[in-house]
Amino acid sequence: MFFERLPVDLIAEILGELDLESLIQMAYVSKRFYSVASDPSLNPWRRPIMRILNMHMYEPALKHLSVRLIVPRRNWIEIITLARPSFVLYDATLPNLKSEEWEECFKRRFLPSWQKWKKESSWKEAFLKLLHRVWHRSVSSCTSDEAWTKYVVLNRNGSANELEVSSRNYNPFSVFNEMKQQNNLSHLETRIRASYRLVVELSDVRILAFGTLAKPRSDLMVNPNAHMFLTPPGITANRPGNVLTKLASRNRLGFVDDHGVYPMSPSTVPAYLFKDYHNPVVTYKRLIYPQPATTHANYPLFTSGGGDSRWNDLDEIEESGLHWVGALMQAMVSHPRLLKSHNLFFCCRITAQLICPSRDSDNPRHQYASFAWDDLWAIAPWMDEIITKRINGAGLGN
After folding, report:
1. 322 within some domain
2. In this structure, which of 58, 112, 170, 296 has its CB flanked by the most CB atoms within 10 Å?
């Protein structure tokens, strides 16, 4: 057969274009195909598996793929990391992975602060127990496993607070409105599109940032760290030139001498001050632990496809002279059924749940999880040097 005479890497490329069931059948056609399919360095299985995981329509062949020794074990790290909880817990036949491989799955799927649940358990036991917690929280309003929910607030003076509230009474939208009152911003209309931003989506949770966009009456109202957290300096959404450099060239905005570089007051901004942000590749690396969902695969860099909305309306914001003012709240929402839906649909449903949970009847309340310091450093490591003071609990940290 002419096909078998092709180079092995080309055969692997062709096999990778097949669906999973067809690939299984082709792998047993001849010894050469079997050799190519079982080679971990060629691994034609990854592409059909990733297509299934990205589409969230699981083929029957995926359920018992682990019984086939021809499939490299490494593929199961991707499956266990990205597949929906119910599939991993109740549908799939799990392979015999090493302890190091289960640890890899745990760190890729869950946030760093979630390691507190491991205790003395093995990595496999800890992973399955925690995944069951995630599934349980997605189908019920039970909060017995986490009575207190943590969240992080970035203050406009450069400090940050890690706060906690009773899980039964926790609603980020209500907490955010209280912060607006404390920051004397209650007179500003809470626009849904400007009220919260989707920062990054993981396998089981989405991390949201609540803030207020407005034209500040004073530079003291502006929160430079909020801008740095949502749109890291040097990263743009496939736009020509650097956003900060473009602002500098306009010679209409300035910045305050703070740990966050953010244009605020009318003055001349020397372009050389932005030279450190021209090459984000030196500073930023793709997030692996935890591993983002497909919509944010390149995070913190921009991911095309419409799921990464951090730079949405940025031109309008710049032209209108809007800035992030007051405190910025970071919260985490957990709802796998909504996470796999269209982004616009998610926004409508989560907005209804945040504003008036009782009206969103088929959505259980309390779909929130704790977001702690370790989680912030994991998804935004550049903030480690920017935040001037870390405060556990309320107050100024004096």
Report:
1. yes
2. 296
**Long-range pairs for 15-23: beta carbons < 8 A, 24 or more residues apart:** 15/44, 16/44, 16/45, 16/46, 16/47, 16/48, 17/47, 18/48, 19/48, 19/59, 20/45, 20/48, 20/49, 20/52, 20/59, 20/61, 20/62, 20/65, 21/59, 21/60, 21/61, 23/48
> DSSP string spanning 179-207?
HHHHTT-TTS---HHHHEEEEEEBSSEEE
Residue 282's Cβ-side half-sphere holds a number of Cα atoms within 13 Å equal to 7
| Residue type at 57 in one-letter notation | M
Model pLDDT for residues 322-371, shown as the tens digit of each residue: 888 888 898 888 754 444 444 444 444 444 444 444 444 344 455 788 99
Instruction: Please report the pLDDT score of residue 324 as a whole number.
Output: 85
Please indicate, yes or no, whether residues 343 and 227 belong to a single structural domain of this protein: yes
What residues make up the domain containing 62?
Answer: 1-72
How many domains are contained in the chain? 3
Mark whether 25 and 113 lie in a shared domain.
no
